[in-house]
Amino acid sequence: MSWCKNVKGVLLDITGVLFESGASEPIKGSIEAIKRLKDSKIPVRFCTNETTKTRQKLLQKLHSIGFSMKEDDVFPPIPACCQILKSRGLRPHLVVNPDALSDFCEINQENPNCVVLGDATDNFSYQNLNKAFQLLMSLETPVLFALGGGKYYKEGSDLILDVGPFAKALEYACDVEAEIVGKPSKSFFGAVLQDLGQPAESVVMIGDDIVNDVGGAQSCGMRGVQVRTGKYRPSDENHPTVKADGYVDNLAHAIDLILQS
Amino acid sequence: MSWCKNVKGVLLDITGVLFESGASEPIKGSIEAIKRLKDSKIPVRFCTNETTKTRQKLLQKLHSIGFSMKEDDVFPPIPACCQILKSRGLRPHLVVNPDALSDFCEINQENPNCVVLGDATDNFSYQNLNKAFQLLMSLETPVLFALGGGKYYKEGSDLILDVGPFAKALEYACDVEAEIVGKPSKSFFGAVLQDLGQPAESVVMIGDDIVNDVGGAQSCGMRGVQVRTGKYRPSDENHPTVKADGYVDNLAHAIDLILQS
Question: GO molecular function, one example (chains A, B) (predicted)?
Answer without folding.
Answer: metal ion binding
